[in-house]
Prior knowledge:
Elements: E1 4-15, E2 18-27, H1 30-41, E3 46-55, E4 60-61, E5 65-71, H2 76-81
Amino acid sequence: MARKTIYCAQGFWLRRGRLVGGVVHQFLNEERARAGAEALLTGCEGVAVFSLEGHPDEDLWEEPRMIATFGAVPGLSEAADAPTDYAA
């Protein structure tokens, strides 16, 4: 069972007084995820860069590890409750 780390960036927009998460973009490494976050930041209020480790074959993932945030981003407990639009 192969263990894998994926790097992600997710933009957040302010809608009706709440931060709403957008699509989670996946990247090959942390450097590309940070570059993707910079590009996303031009059109939203904030961006979170994080990684996930786990076993994709079994769809078992650990809690996300926050790498960086830019602008307005909900806290970790808030992010779990925030509506998101996940796309493959």
